[in-house]
């Protein structure tokens, strides 16, 4: 009898251990080092695919965790793994998540619109249909309805502004930096760019004036043989070459580049002070060359 009880208890422990054991992915996540992850992966997945993965020279712990995750998604055991199926299922999950994230704003706006539409269809009651309500409460009902309408209007305006900012941000993020000078623009000398900047400043086109002065700065650095001015390159590419030039001057071209980038590519409004600052920076290039010559 005692032996039977002992066997029953052992069987119970065995079943409990099997039932509550961690999944392969959980066991992989519990590893702390690459060596631990290798050992666990070799024990959990003794197949040819895992053997090839473990031979990789650039293998990381995260790669083994990702492998366990892909196997769990595919629903295959350690003896067989269909990589194509796992990738398709993983891609489908990612697409579904992205679709949900992309539609949250539209769904929220639709819900707000339905609420407002339902309230607008509801007839306004100047007097409440509550025979036992206090007169003060009845007089407050119209005011409360107005408050609700105003709050919903503000909520709708908030969603509208949020949507516009979202679209604007995506447009800015997707906008690539273009060349400093377009191919269809004529070749201009340094003096011609400076004259053009003066004309733009006189006509109040400060954004164009800032651009002309910044190009003039780069042309002046070209004359000094610090860097070459290349029409097809961006402002950041010119800055990269300036900061690595052996003839680099002791000037903060990065500050001028940031101002130009913010005004020209960022489409921010330029002021007369911005033009004055860029002109002063150009003059600092000229003065620095004179000091070196003397």
Describe the 3D structure.
- By secondary structure, the protein is mainly alpha-helical.
- It folds into three domains: 9-81, no CATH class; 95-174, no CATH class; 190-293, no CATH class.
- 71% of the residues lie in helices and 0% in strands.
- It contains twelve helices and no strands.
- It has helices at residues 2-19, 24-29, 34-44, 48-54, 61-74, 83-121, 135-174, 190-202, 206-223, 235-243, 253-265, 272-293.
- Helix 6 packs antiparallel against helix 7 (135-174) and helix 9 (206-223) runs antiparallel to helix 11.
- The longest helix is centred in the middle third of the chain and has 40 residues, at 135-174.
- It is flat, with a radius of gyration of 35 Å.
- The model is unreliable at 11-20, 76-87 and 169-176 (pLDDT under 50).
